[in-house]
Specification:
This protein has helices at about 1-20, 40-55, 65-85, 95-100. It is built from 4 helices and no strands. Helix 2 runs antiparallel to helix 3. It has a domain at about 35-90. Residues about 15-20 have low confidence and may be disordered. The chain is mainly α.
């Protein structure tokens, strides 16, 4: 009788863990800032991961999709690392008018 219930228990457990949408880490890379030691970077990285985790955990955020929570986590992490003077990715776009007018070539 135990063997019959065991697959059901495993199925329920796997479904419950699939509902977890808290990111495990950032999907963006940050690099140590100028004049920052690697130990400072690691300390700041840990603190910013904790900060980002707090921003995406809790009952309110569990209703969001995994994609949305990852975006929120990444934004929080990048903002935190930026405020600690580390190098973080920056999105850039070339304005369409510049391309048409040949500016920037």
């Amino acid at each position: 009788m135990f063997k019959i219930h065991r697959p059901l228990i495993l199925l329920i457990a796997s479904l419950l863990t699939a509902c977890e949408s808290t990111p495990s880490g950032p999907s963006w890379m940050a690099l140590p800032g100028s004049g920052k030691s690697f130990n400072e970077f690691r300390k700041d990285d840990y603190q910013c991961r904790q900060f980002a985790h707090k921003q995406t955990s809790g009952t309110y955020f569990e209703d969001y999709s995994e994609f949305v929570n990852q975006q929120r986590y990444d934004t929080s992490y990048v903002q935190c690392m930026y405020t600690k003077d580390h190098r973080v990715p920056v999105r850039s776009q070339i304005p369409e008018d510049s391309i048409k007018n040949g500016i920037g070539n």
